[in-house]
Inverse folding.
């Protein structure tokens, strides 16, 4: 009996360890922000399709390619690409797999600091936030979103001290090789986080309409905003450049909007955007695919490195599927269902539609906790568990960089950690300084956390399906696996997934870079992320952010070019003859 | 919330919950799966090598 109990305990422990490594801030903070930004069932549909035809298959491709490279002695993305592509240029594609996690770490660790800061301030009883205005204001002050360098104060209510603590903690754990302790802690923290999230979900779903004077701002309309496939909007008949459609959710609100339109004398009109119309927006697909990649750590350069440490006996198919499904439960059934409906209940549909990014959770969840009994305790506990989940993710983001520096320069782990420490200190300092409107963070999150991930994932699946070959790839996948990948994934990985990604990419380039509106066939607006870099509306901070990424690319590129570590890899030979 | 919205929500949530539950069941009922299931464990070989030195 005790043996049986022990076996089950051990198995659940392994599942929790996998969950701990898979769940992070992307689930509870980034996803709700995107769902709110692109609002509507169409985004969720694009998200579900992306999970099935790109998230799962590319994840499996990464596990297989990583383990194959590891068997030959290579533990970095440049090494893996060099030995699979077998030419002198392959290793340079792999550099993207180093840049992505390293640059994401630079801003991820700041959000990790926010989580710790919020947790401690909840426990200190300092977060008595009464309404949405106060919560949004506190977040702006805490993060320095009001002006540059304003988060750099040594105060309980500022980012700097928390960031310093988190940054030092991460590198101390890695430098001393103590991160296994965090992993063990996660076995307790993960179930606690999920239990707290379920409690929070129950509280959110029973919120009703928190402000009786605004009956349309309620949870049911929040769920409608997130899941309704068709969008109903009020628009001006002759809109100016600054006029945006106003989305309406809920039967009563729509009736009132119709009356408003009828009374407007033709100045306003109702508009309905169906699913197909919304799905014609390539930015929505890019965001949905980007979120799938971000939260599953696919196209990230992380899985390929960790898979390289596995043996032929390890089950990469079920490992990948378990990690992915845990992620999805936390993201879809918890993260999304909590934050967006609560945000609509407190801020209204109009208030949520204007929000984007990871900030939404920080602006809304403290209010929900304030409406709960013992809210200070539970609020602190929730943000602390989120902080722990983030620590495991951020440590895993550093490993691809550490493994690359070790391999390329032939140095030990501690030297490698020191080099990465210097680089990320500079990058994190940059994001911490340029906090006005969170411009640096947002720019890096788009160009690296969405765009570059998308590029790397596309390269990976093309390499897997066309260069390495499905037969070799599936043989590698099935080594040690207790389940087989369904046959349908063969055509998906060979044809559908690459075609899907390339089509989205081409559509996105047309719309966001060249300003060609596909739905009307006419010239439209160019993406704000592009106008931030070029032209009259350019932002110096956005330009500097992208320049920093290019500089890191050149730095890693020079290291790769001068390294002798990949000479054997590009011939498909093991790292050493031993 | 429209009926279509409710259906999309129920379908999405139940699909991910089912998939997650199936994975848990598979891990718990497959012999020796504990030894072969992995996430991003932090005790990587270079950490162990560093400790040994």
């Amino acid at each position: 009996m005790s043996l049986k109990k022990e076996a089950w305990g051990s198995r659940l422990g392994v599942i929790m360890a996998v969950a701990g490594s898979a769940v992070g801030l992307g689930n509870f903070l980034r996803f709700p922000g995107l769902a709110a930004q692109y609002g509507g069932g169409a985004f969720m549909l694009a998200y579900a399709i992306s999970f099935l035809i790109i998230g799962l298959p590319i994840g499996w491709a990464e596990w297989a390619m990583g383990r194959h490279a590891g068997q030959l002695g290579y533990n970095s993305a440049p090494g893996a690409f060099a030995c699979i592509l077998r030419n002198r240029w392959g290793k340079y594609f792999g550099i993207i797999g180093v840049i992505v996690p390293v640059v994401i770490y630079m801003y991820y660790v700041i959000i990790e600091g926010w989580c710790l800061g919020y947790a401690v301030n909840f426990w200190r009883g300092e977060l008595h936030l009464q309404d949405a205005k106060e919560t949004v204001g506190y977040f702006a002050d805490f993060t320095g979103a009001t002006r540059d360098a304003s988060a750099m104060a040594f105060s309980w209510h500022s980012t700097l001290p928390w960031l310093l603590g988190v940054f030092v903690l991460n590198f101390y754990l890695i430098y001393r090789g103590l991160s296994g302790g965090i992993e063990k802690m996660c076995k307790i923290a993960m179930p606690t986080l999920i239990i707290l999230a379920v409690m929070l979900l129950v509280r959110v779903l029973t919120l009703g309409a928190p402000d009786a004077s605004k009956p349309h701002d309620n949870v049911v309309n929040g769920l409608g905003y997130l899941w309704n496939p068709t969008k109903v909007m009020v628009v001006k008949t002759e809109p100016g450049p600054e006029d945006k459609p106003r989305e309406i959710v809920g039967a009563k609100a729509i009736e009132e909007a119709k009356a408003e339109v009828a009374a407007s004398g033709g100045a306003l009109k109702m508009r309905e955007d169906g699913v197909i119309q919304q799905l014609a927006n390539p930015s929505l697909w890019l965001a949905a695919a980007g979120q799938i990649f971000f939260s599953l750590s696919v196209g990230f350069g992380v899985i390929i490195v960790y898979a390289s440490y596995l043996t032929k006996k390890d089950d990469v198919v079920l490992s990948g599927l378990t990690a992915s499904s845990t992620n999805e439960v936390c993201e879809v059934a918890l993260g999304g269902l909590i934050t967006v409906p609560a945000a609509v209940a407190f801020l209204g549909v109009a208030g949520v539609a204007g929000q984007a990014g990871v900030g939404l959770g920080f602006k809304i969840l403290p209010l929900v906790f304030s409406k709960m009994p013992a809210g200070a305790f539970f609020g602190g506990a929730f943000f602390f568990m989120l902080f722990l989940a983030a620590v495991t993710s951020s440590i895993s983001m550093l490993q691809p960089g550490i493994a690359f520096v070790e391999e390329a320069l032939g140095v030990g782990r501690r030297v490698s950690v020191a080099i990465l420490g210097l680089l990320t200190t500079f990058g994190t300092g940059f994001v911490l300084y340029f906090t006005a409107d969170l411009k640096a963070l947002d720019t890096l999150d788009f160009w690296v956390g969405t765009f570059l991930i998308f590029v790397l994932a596309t390269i990976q699946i093309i390499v897997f399906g066309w260069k390495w070959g499905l037969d070799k790839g599936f043989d590698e996948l099935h080594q040690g696996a207790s389940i087989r990948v369904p046959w349908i994934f063969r055509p998906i990985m060979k044809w559908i997934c690459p075609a899907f990604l390339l089509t989205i990419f081409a559509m996105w380039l047309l719309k966001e870079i060249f300003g060609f509106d596909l739905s009307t066939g006419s010239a439209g607006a160019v993406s704000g992320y592009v106008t931030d870099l070029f032209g009259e509306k350019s932002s110096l901070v956005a330009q500097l952010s992208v320049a920093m990424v290019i500089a890191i690319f050149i730095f890693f590129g020079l290291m790769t070019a001068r390294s002798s570590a990949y000479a054997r890899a590009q011939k498909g030979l093991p790292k050493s003859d031993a | 919330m429209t009926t279509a919205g409710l259906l999309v929500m129920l379908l999405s949530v139940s699909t991910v919950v089912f998939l997650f539950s199936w994975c848990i069941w598979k891990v718990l009922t497959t012999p020796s799966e504990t030894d072969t299931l992995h996430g991003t464990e932090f005790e990587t070989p270079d950490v162990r090598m560093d400790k040994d030195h």
User: Anything to note?
Assistant: The first helix of chain A runs from residue 2 to 22.
